[in-house]
Specification:
It is a single chain. With about 170 residues, this protein is of the alpha+beta class. It has six helices and six strands, in the order E-E-E-E-H-H-E-E-H-H-H-H. The longest helix has 26 residues. The structure holds zinc ion (2 copies).
Length: about 170
């Protein structure tokens, strides 16, 4: 028994052509590598297209490249709660929401789990930090370190910018 069945392309394939999955008893998914990769690419394209559509809707800078999006999405840990992420649970979050004028650009995106991404939603990241129990002080400090490397300034300066952004939004009654 050296072959497994791919439900997606409806073919029997040798084991080395099947997608590995530790959690399944067989050690493989019901899908071959080729189908899995095609699905991944399609899913990625849909998500990139959505981010570009939103950026146009909000009228913000729209320069995030496909490779940059894929690189962020491939990261294995949520930058906010620190949980491991993969597949459907792995999302790309705009640190300054596009609704608040944040660009759809490499300098403004991080990897986040679906849960953090949806609770953060259109809030300034500093507000999310204040409200979230899982986004701890340690994780916020690590976020400032990582995120400031892609922006101008030190983690301290970035913290200041993010606090001001939060106060401006709250002051505006957001
Ligand atoms: Zn297949
Ligand atoms: Zn998270």
């Amino acid at each position: 028994m050296n072959e497994l069945y791919c439900r997606n392309c409806d073919k029997w394939k040798p084991l080395n052509a099947m997608k590995k999955e530790k959690r399944n008893r067989s050690g493989y998914m019901n899908m071959c590598n080729q189908c899995h990769y095609a699905k991944y690419k399609k899913n990625l394209r849909i998500r990139i297209d959505n981010s570009r559509k939103k950026a146009d809707e909000y009228g913000v800078m729209n320069v995030l490249l496909k490779a940059e999006f894929a690189e962020v999405k491939a990261k294995k840990r949520c930058i906010y709660c620190g949980n491991e992420i993969s597949g459907f649970n792995s999302t790309v979050d705009h640190v300054t929401p596009m609704k608040l004028g944040g660009p759809n650009a490499r300098a403004n995106v991080v990897q986040a789990c679906r849960s953090c991404n949806s609770s953060k939603n259109h809030k300034p990241v500093y507000q999310f930090y204040l409200e979230s129990e899982t986004f701890t002080d340690e994780l916020y400090a690590a976020f400032l370190d990582e995120f400031s490397q892609r922006n101008i300034g030190t983690p301290e300066q970035l913290d200041e910018v993010l606090r001001q952004q939060y106060e401006a939004e709250v002051g505006a009654g957001a």
